[in-house]
Amino acid sequence: MQDLGGAFGEALRLIVQLDRDLLEIVGLSLRVSLSAVALAALIGLPLGAVVAICRFPGKAIVVATLNTFMGLPPVVVGLVVYLMLSRAGPLGELGLLYTPSAMIVAQTVLVTPIVAALARQTVEDMRSEYWEQLHAFGVGTGGMVATLLWEARLSLVTVLLAGFGRAVAEVGAVIIVGGNINHVTRVMTTAIALETSKGALDLALGLGIVLLALVLGVNGLASGLRGMVARHGHA
Questions:
Q1: Distance CA 73, CA 190 (A)
Q2: pTM
Q3: Would you tell me which of 62, 86, 133, 235 could form a disulfide with 154, CB atoms 3.0–4.6 Å apart?
Q4: Topology of domain 4-232, per CATH?
Q5: pLDDT of 17-71, one tens digit each?
C-alpha cells in the first residue's frame, strides 16, 4: 500500500502532466456516458412529454413505473443487459459484450427512466400554462410535445445533467457488461475500483479527483440553470 501523502502528490502530478493512461480512461468514460445520455434524451424526453400531455387508461401506473425505474439497481441492469448480449442471448450475434457499446446500452437503460420521469414532471408543470393556447390553435399531440419540450429547454438541460451525473459515476452495470478490460472498456469508476484493490492509489486518486470535479461541475451547472429558470419563471 502506498503512502497516502505520496500517492496524493503523484495523483496530482498525473493530472497536471495529462498522463496518457489517465486521459484514455477519462476520455472513454466521457464518450460512454455522453453517448448514453444522448440516447436517453432521444427516448426519454419525448416519452416523458407524451405521458405528461396525453390522458390514457393506466397513466398512473406508467407514471409510477417511471418513478420506480429511476432507482433501478445498476447491477440488475448490468445482469439483464449481459444476458441479452451474451452468446446465448437474443442479441448475442451482434458481438457487443465487453465493448464500449455494451456499456453505452447499460447506461442508457439506467438513465432513460430518470430523463423520462423528470421530463414528465417538467412538461406537466408547464402544460397548464400553455394548454389553452395550444388547444385554441388546434395543435395536435406531436406539436404540443415539440412546443413544450422547446419551452422547457433550460429545465430539461438540468434533467440531462442529472442523467449524466448518474451515468458517469456508475460502476456496477458497466463492469458487468464491459469487463473492465485495459485500453478497451476501462472507465473511471471501474479503474478506481481495480487500482484501489491493487493498492495503486496514485492513479485511483487521480481518477477520483477528476470524477469528483466532473460531478461537482455538473451539479454547479445544474444549480445555475435552475436559478435561471426560477428567475425567468420558465425556460
A1: 17
A2: 0.88
A3: 235
A4: MetI-like fold (1.10.3720)
A5: 888 999 999 999 999 999 999 999 999 999 999 998 888 898 899 999 999 999 8
